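hey can u run this one w/ adenosine-5'-triphosphate bound, need the C-alpha coordinates asap thx
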Amino acid sequence: MATQDDVFKKIVSHAKEYGFVFPSSDIYDGLSAVYDYGQNGVELKNNIKRYWWDAMTLLNENIVGIDSAIFMHPTIWKASGHVDAFNDPLIDNRDSKKRYRADVLIEDHIAKYDDKIEKEVTKGRKRFKESFDESQFRATNPRILEIAARRDALHTRFSEAMNAANLDELRQIIIDEEIVCPVSGTKNWTEVRQFNLMFKTEMGSTADGAMAVYLRPETAQGIFVNYLNVQKTGRMRIPFGIAQIGKAFRNEIVARQFIFRMREFEQMEMQFFVRPGSELEWFGKWKETRMRWHKALGLGDEKYRYHDHEKLAHYANAATDIEFRMPFGFKEVEGIHSRTDFDLSQHEKFSGKNIKYFDPELNESYVPYVIETSIGVDRMFLTVLCSSYEEQSLEGGDTRVVLHLPAPLAPVKCAVMPLVRKDGLPDKAREIVNDLKFDFATHYDEKDSIGKRYRRQDAIGTPFCITVDHQTLEDNTVTLRHRDSMEQQRVNIADLHRLIHDNVSINSLLRKLV
Ligand code: ATP
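ok here u go:
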Protein backbone atom coordinates (compact mmCIF):
# COMPACT_ATOMS: atom_id res chain seq x y z
CA MET A 1 0.00 0.00 0.00
CA ALA A 2 1.30 3.42 -0.94
CA THR A 3 1.50 5.80 2.03
CA GLN A 4 -0.13 9.22 1.90
CA ASP A 5 3.36 10.63 1.60
CA ASP A 6 4.03 8.58 -1.53
CA VAL A 7 0.70 9.62 -3.00
CA PHE A 8 1.52 13.28 -2.39
CA LYS A 9 4.91 12.90 -4.08
CA LYS A 10 3.20 11.34 -7.07
CA ILE A 11 0.71 14.21 -7.27
CA VAL A 12 3.55 16.74 -7.21
CA SER A 13 5.41 15.00 -10.01
CA HIS A 14 2.21 14.49 -11.99
CA ALA A 15 1.52 18.24 -11.68
CA LYS A 16 4.90 18.94 -13.25
CA GLU A 17 4.82 16.22 -15.88
CA TYR A 18 1.45 17.34 -17.22
CA GLY A 19 1.99 21.10 -17.26
CA PHE A 20 0.06 22.08 -14.14
CA VAL A 21 2.72 23.39 -11.74
CA PHE A 22 6.46 23.94 -12.27
CA PRO A 23 9.02 25.05 -9.71
CA SER A 24 9.80 28.72 -10.35
CA SER A 25 13.05 29.39 -12.21
CA ASP A 26 13.29 25.67 -12.89
CA ILE A 27 16.36 25.78 -15.15
CA TYR A 28 18.17 27.59 -12.30
CA ASP A 29 17.16 24.79 -9.91
CA GLY A 30 14.11 26.57 -8.53
CA LEU A 31 13.38 29.27 -5.99
CA SER A 32 12.19 28.06 -2.63
CA ALA A 33 8.40 28.12 -2.14
CA VAL A 34 7.73 29.91 -5.41
CA TYR A 35 5.93 28.13 -8.24
CA ASP A 36 4.78 28.76 -11.80
CA TYR A 37 1.56 27.47 -13.30
CA GLY A 38 1.88 25.74 -16.66
CA GLN A 39 -0.41 25.47 -19.66
CA ASN A 40 -2.97 23.27 -17.87
CA GLY A 41 -2.45 24.75 -14.40
CA VAL A 42 -3.31 28.27 -15.50
CA GLU A 43 -6.61 27.09 -17.00
CA LEU A 44 -7.57 25.16 -13.87
CA LYS A 45 -6.59 28.13 -11.72
CA ASN A 46 -8.57 30.57 -13.88
CA ASN A 47 -11.62 28.32 -13.63
CA ILE A 48 -11.36 28.22 -9.83
CA LYS A 49 -11.14 32.00 -9.79
CA ARG A 50 -14.11 32.36 -12.13
CA TYR A 51 -16.21 30.03 -9.98
CA TRP A 52 -15.41 32.13 -6.90
CA TRP A 53 -15.81 35.49 -8.64
CA ASP A 54 -19.15 34.60 -10.20
CA ALA A 55 -20.46 33.08 -6.97
CA MET A 56 -19.65 36.36 -5.22
CA THR A 57 -20.50 39.01 -7.79
CA LEU A 58 -23.23 37.42 -9.93
CA LEU A 59 -25.19 35.66 -7.23
CA ASN A 60 -25.16 38.57 -4.79
CA GLU A 61 -26.47 41.86 -6.05
CA ASN A 62 -24.86 43.63 -3.10
CA ILE A 63 -21.32 42.37 -3.77
CA VAL A 64 -19.03 44.13 -6.25
CA GLY A 65 -15.43 43.51 -7.18
CA ILE A 66 -12.27 45.62 -7.31
CA ASP A 67 -8.65 45.14 -8.33
CA SER A 68 -6.35 47.19 -6.13
CA ALA A 69 -2.60 47.67 -6.54
CA ILE A 70 -0.03 45.51 -4.80
CA PHE A 71 1.96 48.55 -3.64
CA MET A 72 0.15 50.64 -1.09
CA HIS A 73 0.99 53.54 1.17
CA PRO A 74 3.26 52.15 3.90
CA THR A 75 1.15 53.69 6.68
CA ILE A 76 -1.60 51.23 5.74
CA TRP A 77 0.50 48.42 7.17
CA LYS A 78 1.14 50.41 10.32
CA ALA A 79 -2.61 50.98 10.72
CA SER A 80 -3.48 47.34 10.03
CA GLY A 81 -1.00 46.13 12.62
CA HIS A 82 1.17 44.23 10.15
CA VAL A 83 4.34 46.26 10.74
CA ASP A 84 4.25 45.58 14.47
CA ALA A 85 2.56 42.24 14.73
CA PHE A 86 2.63 40.22 11.49
CA ASN A 87 5.31 38.02 12.96
CA ASP A 88 6.01 34.37 13.38
CA PRO A 89 8.13 33.10 16.26
CA LEU A 90 11.10 31.18 14.84
CA ILE A 91 13.56 28.81 16.47
CA ASP A 92 16.63 27.01 15.09
CA ASN A 93 18.01 23.63 15.95
CA ARG A 94 21.79 23.99 16.36
CA ASP A 95 22.57 20.46 15.24
CA SER A 96 20.48 20.14 12.09
CA LYS A 97 20.66 23.92 11.36
CA LYS A 98 16.97 23.64 10.50
CA ARG A 99 14.60 26.49 11.21
CA TYR A 100 11.09 26.01 12.59
CA ARG A 101 8.10 28.02 13.65
CA ALA A 102 8.00 27.60 17.43
CA ASP A 103 4.19 27.75 17.44
CA VAL A 104 3.95 25.00 14.80
CA LEU A 105 6.34 22.73 16.75
CA ILE A 106 4.10 23.10 19.80
CA GLU A 107 0.85 22.70 17.84
CA ASP A 108 2.16 19.50 16.27
CA HIS A 109 3.09 18.29 19.72
CA ILE A 110 -0.42 19.04 21.02
CA ALA A 111 -1.81 17.04 18.08
CA LYS A 112 0.22 14.06 19.33
CA TYR A 113 -1.76 14.08 22.59
CA ASP A 114 -4.93 13.91 20.49
CA ASP A 115 -3.48 10.98 18.56
CA LYS A 116 -2.76 9.19 21.85
CA ILE A 117 -6.36 9.68 22.95
CA GLU A 118 -7.61 8.24 19.65
CA LYS A 119 -5.34 5.22 20.10
CA GLU A 120 -6.83 4.56 23.55
CA VAL A 121 -10.33 4.79 22.03
CA THR A 122 -9.37 2.29 19.32
CA LYS A 123 -8.01 -0.08 21.98
CA GLY A 124 -11.23 0.28 23.99
CA ARG A 125 -13.34 -0.44 20.93
CA LYS A 126 -11.41 -3.64 20.27
CA ARG A 127 -11.63 -4.73 23.89
CA PHE A 128 -15.31 -4.08 24.56
CA LYS A 129 -16.59 -4.86 21.06
CA GLU A 130 -20.42 -4.49 20.81
CA SER A 131 -20.85 -3.18 24.33
CA PHE A 132 -18.46 -0.27 23.64
CA ASP A 133 -19.93 3.11 24.57
CA GLU A 134 -17.53 5.62 23.07
CA SER A 135 -18.74 8.79 24.76
CA GLN A 136 -18.77 7.12 28.17
CA PHE A 137 -15.31 5.68 27.54
CA ARG A 138 -13.96 9.11 26.58
CA ALA A 139 -15.51 10.68 29.68
CA THR A 140 -14.36 8.12 32.23
CA ASN A 141 -11.29 6.19 31.09
CA PRO A 142 -8.51 7.23 33.52
CA ARG A 143 -5.74 7.04 30.91
CA ILE A 144 -7.69 9.28 28.51
CA LEU A 145 -8.55 11.73 31.26
CA GLU A 146 -4.88 11.95 32.22
CA ILE A 147 -3.74 12.62 28.63
CA ALA A 148 -6.57 15.12 28.06
CA ALA A 149 -5.66 17.01 31.23
CA ARG A 150 -2.03 17.27 30.12
CA ARG A 151 -3.11 18.34 26.66
CA ASP A 152 -5.48 21.01 28.01
CA ALA A 153 -2.88 22.39 30.42
CA LEU A 154 -0.37 22.62 27.59
CA HIS A 155 -2.91 24.23 25.31
CA THR A 156 -3.73 26.91 27.89
CA ARG A 157 -0.08 27.60 28.56
CA PHE A 158 0.60 27.86 24.82
CA SER A 159 -2.37 30.18 24.16
CA GLU A 160 -1.29 32.49 26.96
CA ALA A 161 2.28 32.60 25.66
CA MET A 162 1.10 33.35 22.12
CA ASN A 163 -1.36 36.04 23.22
CA ALA A 164 1.32 37.72 25.31
CA ALA A 165 3.92 37.21 22.53
CA ASN A 166 6.09 35.72 25.28
CA LEU A 167 9.00 34.21 23.34
CA ASP A 168 10.88 32.92 26.39
CA GLU A 169 7.81 31.04 27.50
CA LEU A 170 7.40 29.48 24.03
CA ARG A 171 10.98 28.23 24.25
CA GLN A 172 10.41 26.97 27.78
CA ILE A 173 7.37 24.99 26.59
CA ILE A 174 9.53 23.34 23.91
CA ILE A 175 12.14 22.45 26.55
CA ASP A 176 9.61 21.25 29.17
CA GLU A 177 7.71 19.12 26.66
CA GLU A 178 11.03 17.69 25.45
CA ILE A 179 10.20 18.47 21.83
CA VAL A 180 13.02 17.32 19.55
CA CYS A 181 14.03 18.43 16.08
CA PRO A 182 12.44 16.02 13.58
CA VAL A 183 15.70 16.00 11.59
CA SER A 184 18.51 15.76 14.18
CA GLY A 185 16.40 14.29 16.96
CA THR A 186 18.09 16.64 19.48
CA LYS A 187 16.85 19.30 21.89
CA ASN A 188 19.68 21.71 21.11
CA TRP A 189 17.47 24.77 20.47
CA THR A 190 18.36 28.45 20.04
CA GLU A 191 16.34 31.31 21.52
CA VAL A 192 12.95 32.07 19.95
CA ARG A 193 12.94 35.23 17.80
CA GLN A 194 10.15 37.21 16.13
CA PHE A 195 10.31 37.35 12.36
CA ASN A 196 8.20 39.77 10.32
CA LEU A 197 6.70 38.10 7.27
CA MET A 198 6.39 41.16 5.05
CA PHE A 199 8.70 41.70 2.07
CA LYS A 200 10.10 45.20 2.03
CA THR A 201 11.38 47.13 -0.96
CA GLU A 202 12.00 50.73 -2.00
CA MET A 203 9.99 53.04 -4.19
CA GLY A 204 11.68 55.97 -5.96
CA SER A 205 15.40 56.55 -6.37
CA THR A 206 17.60 56.78 -3.31
CA ALA A 207 18.65 60.28 -4.37
CA ASP A 208 15.09 61.54 -3.75
CA GLY A 209 14.91 59.76 -0.42
CA ALA A 210 13.27 56.49 -1.41
CA MET A 211 10.21 55.38 0.48
CA ALA A 212 10.11 51.93 2.02
CA VAL A 213 7.11 50.02 0.72
CA TYR A 214 5.88 46.48 1.27
CA LEU A 215 4.58 43.81 -1.02
CA ARG A 216 1.07 43.31 0.36
CA PRO A 217 0.79 40.27 2.65
CA GLU A 218 -2.99 40.11 2.08
CA THR A 219 -5.42 41.64 -0.40
CA ALA A 220 -7.91 42.68 2.30
CA GLN A 221 -6.34 46.07 3.08
CA GLY A 222 -6.81 47.13 -0.56
CA ILE A 223 -10.52 46.62 0.03
CA PHE A 224 -10.63 48.53 3.32
CA VAL A 225 -8.88 51.59 1.92
CA ASN A 226 -11.27 51.59 -1.05
CA TYR A 227 -14.36 51.00 1.03
CA LEU A 228 -15.44 54.63 0.88
CA ASN A 229 -14.71 55.00 -2.86
CA VAL A 230 -16.84 51.99 -3.70
CA GLN A 231 -19.60 52.82 -1.25
CA LYS A 232 -19.98 56.35 -2.62
CA THR A 233 -19.51 55.71 -6.35
CA GLY A 234 -21.57 52.51 -6.32
CA ARG A 235 -24.20 54.05 -4.00
CA MET A 236 -23.89 50.90 -1.93
CA ARG A 237 -26.12 50.40 1.08
CA ILE A 238 -25.16 48.35 4.09
CA PRO A 239 -25.03 45.37 4.14
CA PHE A 240 -22.74 45.08 1.09
CA GLY A 241 -19.52 43.37 0.11
CA ILE A 242 -16.37 44.01 -1.91
CA ALA A 243 -14.53 41.09 -3.50
CA GLN A 244 -10.99 40.95 -4.81
CA ILE A 245 -8.62 38.37 -6.27
CA GLY A 246 -4.92 39.11 -6.26
CA LYS A 247 -1.37 38.24 -5.36
CA ALA A 248 -0.11 38.34 -1.78
CA PHE A 249 3.42 37.86 -0.49
CA ARG A 250 4.70 36.42 2.77
CA ASN A 251 8.27 35.61 3.65
CA GLU A 252 7.23 32.30 5.24
CA ILE A 253 9.86 30.84 7.56
CA VAL A 254 9.14 27.26 6.78
CA ALA A 255 7.81 26.84 3.31
CA ARG A 256 7.06 23.28 2.36
CA GLN A 257 4.29 21.02 1.15
CA PHE A 258 4.38 22.24 -2.42
CA ILE A 259 1.86 24.99 -3.18
CA PHE A 260 0.28 24.75 0.28
CA ARG A 261 2.62 27.34 1.76
CA MET A 262 4.18 29.70 -0.76
CA ARG A 263 6.04 32.98 -0.53
CA GLU A 264 4.08 34.42 -3.45
CA PHE A 265 0.50 33.27 -3.67
CA GLU A 266 -2.96 34.39 -4.63
CA GLN A 267 -5.95 35.17 -2.45
CA MET A 268 -9.67 35.55 -3.09
CA GLU A 269 -11.04 37.78 -0.38
CA MET A 270 -14.41 39.32 0.28
CA GLN A 271 -15.12 41.88 2.97
CA PHE A 272 -18.78 42.18 3.88
CA PHE A 273 -19.77 45.41 5.65
CA VAL A 274 -22.63 45.16 8.13
CA ARG A 275 -24.39 47.04 10.90
CA PRO A 276 -22.70 46.77 14.30
CA GLY A 277 -24.56 44.15 16.33
CA SER A 278 -25.56 42.08 13.30
CA GLU A 279 -22.08 40.71 12.66
CA LEU A 280 -22.47 37.33 14.34
CA GLU A 281 -25.61 36.58 12.38
CA TRP A 282 -23.75 37.42 9.14
CA PHE A 283 -20.75 35.43 10.30
CA GLY A 284 -23.00 32.37 10.62
CA LYS A 285 -24.47 32.97 7.17
CA TRP A 286 -21.11 33.32 5.47
CA LYS A 287 -19.76 30.27 7.24
CA GLU A 288 -22.58 28.24 5.73
CA THR A 289 -22.49 29.91 2.30
CA ARG A 290 -18.77 29.29 1.89
CA MET A 291 -19.05 25.64 2.90
CA ARG A 292 -21.80 25.18 0.34
CA TRP A 293 -19.51 26.66 -2.34
CA HIS A 294 -16.81 24.09 -1.49
CA LYS A 295 -19.15 21.12 -1.32
CA ALA A 296 -20.86 21.94 -4.65
CA LEU A 297 -17.64 20.84 -6.34
CA GLY A 298 -18.37 17.26 -5.28
CA LEU A 299 -14.88 16.47 -4.00
CA GLY A 300 -16.47 14.60 -1.06
CA ASP A 301 -18.38 16.16 1.84
CA GLU A 302 -16.44 14.11 4.38
CA LYS A 303 -13.22 15.88 3.39
CA TYR A 304 -14.30 19.19 4.93
CA ARG A 305 -14.63 20.38 8.48
CA TYR A 306 -14.82 23.65 10.37
CA HIS A 307 -12.17 24.54 12.86
CA ASP A 308 -13.46 27.27 15.16
CA HIS A 309 -10.71 29.41 16.63
CA GLU A 310 -10.40 29.33 20.39
CA LYS A 311 -7.64 31.91 20.34
CA LEU A 312 -8.95 35.00 18.58
CA ALA A 313 -6.93 37.87 17.20
CA HIS A 314 -7.48 40.90 19.43
CA TYR A 315 -9.75 42.56 16.85
CA ALA A 316 -11.90 39.51 16.01
CA ASN A 317 -15.01 38.35 17.83
CA ALA A 318 -15.47 35.10 15.91
CA ALA A 319 -13.31 33.11 13.50
CA THR A 320 -13.40 29.75 11.85
CA ASP A 321 -11.36 27.92 9.24
CA ILE A 322 -12.70 25.61 6.57
CA GLU A 323 -10.26 22.72 6.61
CA PHE A 324 -9.77 20.16 3.88
CA ARG A 325 -8.31 16.67 4.22
CA MET A 326 -5.05 16.88 2.28
CA PRO A 327 -2.78 13.83 1.99
CA PHE A 328 -0.84 15.39 4.91
CA GLY A 329 -3.87 15.88 7.18
CA PHE A 330 -6.74 18.34 7.66
CA LYS A 331 -5.46 21.81 6.72
CA GLU A 332 -6.88 25.32 6.44
CA VAL A 333 -8.06 26.33 2.99
CA GLU A 334 -10.23 29.28 3.90
CA GLY A 335 -10.68 31.57 6.88
CA ILE A 336 -13.93 33.30 7.83
CA HIS A 337 -13.45 36.07 10.33
CA SER A 338 -15.63 38.56 12.11
CA ARG A 339 -13.19 41.49 12.25
CA THR A 340 -15.43 44.00 14.07
CA ASP A 341 -14.75 47.64 13.09
CA PHE A 342 -11.04 47.24 13.72
CA ASP A 343 -9.64 47.83 10.24
CA LEU A 344 -11.87 50.71 9.21
CA SER A 345 -11.44 52.45 12.59
CA GLN A 346 -7.69 52.10 12.35
CA HIS A 347 -7.69 53.62 8.85
CA GLU A 348 -9.91 56.42 10.08
CA LYS A 349 -7.42 57.10 12.84
CA PHE A 350 -4.25 56.87 10.75
CA SER A 351 -5.57 58.69 7.66
CA GLY A 352 -7.51 61.33 9.56
CA LYS A 353 -10.42 60.87 7.11
CA ASN A 354 -13.99 60.31 8.19
CA ILE A 355 -15.05 56.94 6.83
CA LYS A 356 -18.28 56.50 8.70
CA TYR A 357 -21.41 55.29 6.97
CA PHE A 358 -24.67 57.19 7.32
CA ASP A 359 -27.43 54.65 7.72
CA PRO A 360 -30.63 56.26 6.39
CA GLU A 361 -32.86 53.67 8.07
CA LEU A 362 -31.37 54.22 11.52
CA ASN A 363 -30.67 57.88 10.85
CA GLU A 364 -27.21 57.55 12.38
CA SER A 365 -23.57 57.25 11.36
CA TYR A 366 -21.27 54.43 12.35
CA VAL A 367 -18.13 52.56 11.32
CA PRO A 368 -19.41 49.31 9.75
CA TYR A 369 -18.44 45.93 11.13
CA VAL A 370 -16.82 43.46 8.77
CA ILE A 371 -17.12 39.77 8.01
CA GLU A 372 -14.23 38.52 5.91
CA THR A 373 -14.02 35.39 3.80
CA SER A 374 -10.45 34.70 2.72
CA ILE A 375 -9.37 31.77 0.61
CA GLY A 376 -6.07 30.92 -1.06
CA VAL A 377 -6.36 30.15 -4.77
CA ASP A 378 -3.30 27.90 -4.65
CA ARG A 379 -4.54 25.93 -1.66
CA MET A 380 -7.86 25.54 -3.37
CA PHE A 381 -6.01 24.31 -6.46
CA LEU A 382 -4.23 21.78 -4.25
CA THR A 383 -7.48 20.45 -2.74
CA VAL A 384 -8.89 19.95 -6.23
CA LEU A 385 -5.74 18.26 -7.50
CA CYS A 386 -5.28 15.98 -4.48
CA SER A 387 -8.85 14.76 -4.41
CA SER A 388 -9.00 14.23 -8.17
CA TYR A 389 -5.86 12.16 -8.62
CA GLU A 390 -6.35 8.41 -8.97
CA GLU A 391 -4.24 5.52 -10.18
CA GLN A 392 -6.77 3.03 -11.45
CA SER A 393 -6.34 -0.64 -12.23
CA LEU A 394 -8.44 -1.58 -15.20
CA GLU A 395 -9.80 -4.89 -16.41
CA GLY A 396 -7.18 -6.90 -18.26
CA GLY A 397 -4.34 -5.74 -15.99
CA ASP A 398 -4.05 -2.28 -17.53
CA THR A 399 -3.67 0.85 -15.40
CA ARG A 400 -4.37 4.52 -15.92
CA VAL A 401 -3.79 7.76 -14.05
CA VAL A 402 -6.91 9.89 -14.13
CA LEU A 403 -7.74 13.29 -12.72
CA HIS A 404 -11.41 13.30 -11.76
CA LEU A 405 -11.53 17.10 -11.89
CA PRO A 406 -14.94 18.70 -11.48
CA ALA A 407 -15.79 19.17 -15.17
CA PRO A 408 -16.37 22.95 -14.93
CA LEU A 409 -12.83 23.34 -13.58
CA ALA A 410 -11.06 21.05 -16.07
CA PRO A 411 -8.44 22.86 -18.21
CA VAL A 412 -9.57 21.13 -21.39
CA LYS A 413 -13.25 20.28 -21.79
CA CYS A 414 -13.09 17.99 -24.78
CA ALA A 415 -10.57 16.42 -27.14
CA VAL A 416 -11.48 15.57 -30.69
CA MET A 417 -9.64 12.65 -32.30
CA PRO A 418 -9.79 11.14 -35.77
CA LEU A 419 -9.54 7.36 -35.41
CA VAL A 420 -6.95 7.25 -38.21
CA ARG A 421 -4.95 9.94 -39.96
CA LYS A 422 -6.50 9.37 -43.38
CA ASP A 423 -9.74 8.93 -45.35
CA GLY A 424 -10.88 12.48 -44.55
CA LEU A 425 -11.30 11.74 -40.83
CA PRO A 426 -8.85 14.51 -39.74
CA ASP A 427 -10.81 17.06 -41.79
CA LYS A 428 -14.08 16.00 -40.20
CA ALA A 429 -12.50 16.17 -36.73
CA ARG A 430 -11.15 19.68 -37.45
CA GLU A 431 -14.62 20.74 -38.51
CA ILE A 432 -15.97 19.69 -35.10
CA VAL A 433 -13.11 21.49 -33.30
CA ASN A 434 -13.80 24.65 -35.27
CA ASP A 435 -17.39 24.58 -34.11
CA LEU A 436 -16.80 23.72 -30.43
CA LYS A 437 -13.76 25.92 -29.80
CA PHE A 438 -15.81 29.10 -29.47
CA ASP A 439 -17.45 27.78 -26.32
CA PHE A 440 -15.12 25.16 -24.86
CA ALA A 441 -11.39 24.65 -24.46
CA THR A 442 -11.02 21.98 -27.16
CA HIS A 443 -7.97 19.90 -28.11
CA TYR A 444 -7.30 18.23 -31.42
CA ASP A 445 -5.14 15.10 -31.20
CA GLU A 446 -4.23 12.68 -33.98
CA LYS A 447 -0.91 11.27 -32.72
CA ASP A 448 -0.45 7.70 -31.38
CA SER A 449 -3.03 4.99 -30.83
CA ILE A 450 -6.49 5.98 -29.67
CA GLY A 451 -5.84 4.28 -26.30
CA LYS A 452 -2.75 6.41 -25.69
CA ARG A 453 -4.64 9.54 -26.66
CA TYR A 454 -7.40 8.70 -24.15
CA ARG A 455 -4.77 8.20 -21.42
CA ARG A 456 -3.20 11.59 -22.15
CA GLN A 457 -6.57 13.28 -21.75
CA ASP A 458 -7.39 11.26 -18.59
CA ALA A 459 -4.13 12.46 -17.07
CA ILE A 460 -5.10 16.11 -17.45
CA GLY A 461 -8.72 15.51 -16.46
CA THR A 462 -10.49 16.16 -19.79
CA PRO A 463 -14.13 15.15 -19.19
CA PHE A 464 -14.94 14.22 -22.82
CA CYS A 465 -13.17 12.64 -25.76
CA ILE A 466 -14.86 12.70 -29.15
CA THR A 467 -13.74 10.11 -31.69
CA VAL A 468 -14.39 10.51 -35.38
CA ASP A 469 -14.47 7.25 -37.36
CA HIS A 470 -15.61 6.05 -40.78
CA GLN A 471 -19.22 5.84 -39.68
CA THR A 472 -19.08 9.57 -38.86
CA LEU A 473 -18.68 10.32 -42.55
CA GLU A 474 -21.85 8.37 -43.28
CA ASP A 475 -24.22 9.42 -40.53
CA ASN A 476 -22.67 12.38 -38.68
CA THR A 477 -22.37 10.48 -35.40
CA VAL A 478 -19.28 10.26 -33.20
CA THR A 479 -18.20 8.37 -30.09
CA LEU A 480 -18.42 10.42 -26.94
CA ARG A 481 -16.22 8.92 -24.22
CA HIS A 482 -16.77 9.86 -20.58
CA ARG A 483 -13.59 10.25 -18.54
CA ASP A 484 -14.67 8.74 -15.21
CA SER A 485 -16.76 5.77 -16.35
CA MET A 486 -14.88 5.34 -19.66
CA GLU A 487 -18.33 4.66 -21.06
CA GLN A 488 -18.68 5.33 -24.79
CA GLN A 489 -21.81 6.67 -26.31
CA ARG A 490 -22.75 7.11 -29.97
CA VAL A 491 -24.12 10.62 -30.40
CA ASN A 492 -25.04 12.96 -33.18
CA ILE A 493 -22.60 15.80 -33.87
CA ALA A 494 -25.49 18.23 -33.59
CA ASP A 495 -26.02 17.16 -29.94
CA LEU A 496 -22.40 17.55 -28.84
CA HIS A 497 -22.64 21.16 -27.84
CA ARG A 498 -25.58 20.63 -25.50
CA LEU A 499 -24.19 17.44 -23.95
CA ILE A 500 -20.87 19.07 -23.19
CA HIS A 501 -22.29 22.36 -22.03
CA ASP A 502 -24.62 20.74 -19.49
CA ASN A 503 -21.62 19.23 -17.75
CA VAL A 504 -18.83 21.72 -18.03
CA SER A 505 -20.31 25.17 -17.52
CA ILE A 506 -19.48 27.13 -14.38
CA ASN A 507 -23.20 27.86 -14.43
CA SER A 508 -23.97 24.26 -13.51
CA LEU A 509 -21.98 24.79 -10.30
CA LEU A 510 -23.50 28.17 -9.55
CA ARG A 511 -26.99 26.75 -9.83
CA LYS A 512 -26.24 24.39 -6.95
CA LEU A 513 -25.59 27.38 -4.71
CA VAL A 514 -28.96 29.07 -4.82
P1 ATP B 1 -1.64 29.64 7.98
O1 ATP B 1 -2.09 29.55 9.41
O2 ATP B 1 -1.73 28.35 7.22
O3 ATP B 1 -0.32 30.35 7.80
P2 ATP B 1 -3.17 32.01 7.85
O4 ATP B 1 -4.16 31.77 8.95
O5 ATP B 1 -2.01 32.89 8.09
O6 ATP B 1 -2.69 30.60 7.27
P3 ATP B 1 -4.80 33.85 6.46
O7 ATP B 1 -3.96 35.00 6.81
O8 ATP B 1 -6.13 33.70 7.13
O9 ATP B 1 -3.96 32.50 6.59
O10 ATP B 1 -4.99 33.83 4.87
C1 ATP B 1 -6.18 33.42 4.23
C2 ATP B 1 -5.93 32.29 3.27
O11 ATP B 1 -4.83 32.57 2.41
C3 ATP B 1 -5.56 30.96 3.92
O12 ATP B 1 -6.72 30.27 4.32
C4 ATP B 1 -4.83 30.25 2.82
O13 ATP B 1 -5.73 29.60 1.94
C5 ATP B 1 -4.15 31.38 2.06
N1 ATP B 1 -2.73 31.47 2.45
C6 ATP B 1 -2.21 32.09 3.52
N2 ATP B 1 -0.86 31.97 3.53
C7 ATP B 1 -0.53 31.25 2.42
C8 ATP B 1 0.71 30.81 1.85
N3 ATP B 1 1.87 31.11 2.42
N4 ATP B 1 0.67 30.10 0.71
C9 ATP B 1 -0.51 29.81 0.10
N5 ATP B 1 -1.69 30.21 0.59
C10 ATP B 1 -1.72 30.92 1.73
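The chain is about 40% helix and 25% strand. anyway lmk if its weird
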